Amino acid sequence: MKLPDFRYACPASLDEALQLLGDAGGSAKPLAGGQSLLPTLAFRLAAPGLLVDLRKIPGLDRIVVAKNGVQVGASVRWCEIERHEGLRTGHPLLHAAIRHVAHYQIRNRGTVGGSLAHADPAAELPGIAVTCEAQIELASPHGRRSVPAEKFFTGALSTLLNHDELIVAVRFPPWPALRRWGFEELSRRRGDFAIAGVAVFFDLDAAGRAANTHVGVIGAADRPFRLRAAEAQIDGTSVDAASIARAAAAAMDALDPQSDLHASGAYRRALVGTLLERTLAGALAGKGA
Question: Cα(165)–Cα(230) distance, rounded to whole angstroms?
Answer without folding.
Answer: 35
